[in-house]
């Protein structure tokens, strides 16, 4: 929101806070899977990825629907609505990833809605209702919270430990 929340946001305050905190991660993973799919070779790898995408998409849809049903509800003690929280989280992920709009809150202006016809955004997607995709550097910039795939922080204060993440961390 451009300022420190007082008191600090507590994801365990209540069910709504927990679902807002849960909104932060699944969608990022889903877009990473979508971005990875074209690079995979072989049936077994693609089958595993599609299985993971299905679970991740389901989780994201349940979270987004729960939040959409409460879009106008004020999140106490912050005096911001659920919709505002999702919009700000999505804007932050877009800003950190440095890739334009690939993430949207649960309510969007019609020009960002599916086929430019809707403001409801339970299944976030592009104009053609296709999932956005993210590259590994975009994902690392978000989960590190630094806006750099080479500077760890956020969910991974020591950096990711996979081959791709290590490759970026080893850059001078």
TrEMBL record:
Give UniProt keywords alphabetically: Membrane, Transmembrane, Transmembrane helix
Sections of the chain in a coiled coil? none
**Highest taxon listed in the record's lineage:** Eukaryota
Q: Where are the transmembrane segments?
A: 16-36
Asked if the record carries the keyword Membrane, the reply is: yes
Name of the protein: Desiccation-related protein PCC13-62
Phylogenetic lineage: Eukaryota, Viridiplantae, Streptophyta, Embryophyta, Tracheophyta
């Amino acid at each position: 929101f451009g300022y420190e929340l007082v008191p600090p946001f507590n994801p365990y305050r209540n069910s709504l806070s927990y679902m807002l905190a849960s909104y932060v991660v699944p969608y990022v993973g889903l877009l990473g899977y979508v971005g990875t799919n074209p690079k995979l070779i072989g049936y077994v790898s693609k089958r595993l990825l599609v299985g993971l995408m299905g679970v991740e998409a389901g989780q994201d849809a349940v979270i987004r629907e729960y939040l959409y049903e409460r879009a106008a509800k004020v999140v106490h003690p912050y005096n911001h609505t659920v919709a505002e929280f999702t919009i700000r989280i999505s804007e932050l992920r877009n800003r950190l990833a440095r890739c334009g709009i690939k993430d949207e809150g649960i309510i969007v202006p019609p020009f960002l809605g599916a086929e430019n016809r809707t403001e409801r955004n339970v299944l976030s997607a592009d104009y053609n209702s296709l999932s956005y995709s993210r590259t590994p550097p975009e994902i690392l910039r978000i989960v590190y919270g630094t806006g750099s795939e080479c500077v760890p922080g956020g969910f991974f204060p020591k950096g990711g430990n996979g081959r791709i993440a290590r490759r970026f961390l080893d850059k001078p």
